[in-house]
Specification:
binds S-adenosyl-L-homocysteine; 2 domains; about 35% helix; two-stranded antiparallel sheet; single chain; TIM Barrel; alpha/beta
Length: about 375
């Protein structure tokens, strides 16, 4: 039988933690730590300092054209580039919104798998929303990616390259607002980052290490969003990388969360919140609670009160997301008056709350809908 690489559609409540094995993506500089980089250039018969030179071209100059690598002998540039910075992905579609300051790219990876990334430029920052897996195994019924199942894990370089490509567009002045830099990265594209744990942690190092080892971003500008894989949250707290943890809660009670975020059948609301508070205590970072407001599903006043009660007094902030309806779904965003009341009750309960802006909604947000349509 021919493997077309199509994941089988998950059944209700079904979870996939192990990604299917597929052909490995090409190895890339951004996959490698310091020792790996030294080995890779040694294998090419080159002195160790060449690794730093290529690292500066890739991470600091964002220069993907080896003809500009003038500190490397011209005769060696092409072969070094082919080995250390092979092409990882090609854009399939680019959609823009908000006068060009929101840009979403659908990428095709070496094996045909599709992923999305989104660049969002605000007056004071630029956020890249990246994918950590092609598809997702967590099967949340309101999420377009969850409905398609898990295709495979991304490699570290495939994650980093999404950020670098946005950084290149900004540096080249292709985004309205003049030349700029990526200040923030959120792991809120396709996939469950903590189900691809080692790869994602390596990507966090590549994003935060100073050039030539990485992009030199501040960990404070990076957010890892998770359905709540409790052992992995505990592990992430110990990595010494003070990134922000976003927990996709979506319901304050187990009965509803079991259906909205099926992994809740394994780790309950109280367990996942305990892990989040531990994360906040260890990293001193305020945890973000993601809550997609779904009309008449999770937006009742009593649920707002219960949520406030569970969060009160903690180092936490609630990010309410008006549901972005997926095609064919029976669910839609809450009524404005119910959203207002939900906010009011959280505030009255002493919990900091914001409603996420709906950037890029007309280009299908960052919810896997572009890949689903393709
Ligand atoms: N798997 C991770 C990260 C990817 S999703 C996680 O679940 O946290 C990023 C955020 O978008 C999550 O909070 C997710 O629940 C939310 N989301 C997914 N589909 C959505 C939709 N249709 N409308 C609003 N938010 C959605």
């Amino acid at each position: 039988m021919t493997d077309l690489g199509m994941p089988s559609r998950p059944k209700p409540g079904e979870l996939t933690f192990e990604a299917p094995r597929r052909g490995k993506p090409p190895r890339h500089l951004a996959d490698l730590d310091a020792a790996g980089r030294r080995e890779a250039v040694a294998a090419l018969g080159l002195p160790a300092f060449r690794a730093d030179q290529v690292g500066r071209h890739y991470f600091a100059r964002l220069a993907d054209d080896p003809s500009t690598w003038t500190d490397i002998p011209a005769a060696q540039r092409e072969s070094i580039a082919a080995t250390l910075t092979p092409p990882l992905m090609t854009p399939v579609r680019e959609l823009t919104a908000d006068a060009g300051t929101t840009r979403k790219t659908l990428w095709r990876l070496h094996d045909g798998a599709l992923v999305e990334s989104v660049l969002m430029r605000y007056p004071d920052r630029v956020t890249m929303c990246v994918s950590s897996q092609a598809g997702c195994g967590m099967n949340c019924p309101f999420c377009a990616t969850g409905q398609a199942g898990l295709t495979r894990n991304l490699s570290t370089a495939e994650i980093v390259e999404q950020v670098v490509s946005g950084a290149r567009q900004l540096a080249a002045g292709q985004v309205p607002g003049g030349p700029g830099r990526v200040s923030n990265v959120v792991f809120m594209g396709m996939g469950e980052p903590l189900a691809n744990y080692n790869v994602v942690v390596a990507a966090l190092h590549r994003l935060t290490d100073e050039p030539p080892a990485g992009l030199g971003m501040s960990a404070r500008g990076i957010t890892v969003s998770t359905v709540g894989l409790v052992p992995r949250i505990r592990q992430l707290a110990q990595e010494g990388l003070p990134v922000t943890l976003a927990l996709s809660l979506h319901a304050p009670d187990d009965e509803l969360r079991d259906t909205l975020v099926p992994v809740n059948t394994r780790w309950k609301v109280s367990e996942v919140l305990d892990a989040a508070w531990e994360y906040a205590a260890t990293t001193k970072r305020r945890v973000s609670i993601e809550y997609a407001l779904i009309k008449d599903v999770n937006d009742q006043a009593w649920r707002a009160d219960l949520l406030a009660k569970r969060l009160r007094g903690k180092l936490v902030h609630v990010n309410l997301i008006p549901l972005n309806p997926t095609p064919g779904s029976k669910w839609t965003a809450s009524r404005p008056e119910d959203e207002r009341e939900f906010v009011r009750r959280l505030e009255a309960g002493g919990v900091a709350v914001t409603v996420r802006d709906t950037r890029g909604r007309e280009i299908d947000g960052a919810c896997g809908q572009l890949a689903a349509a393709e």
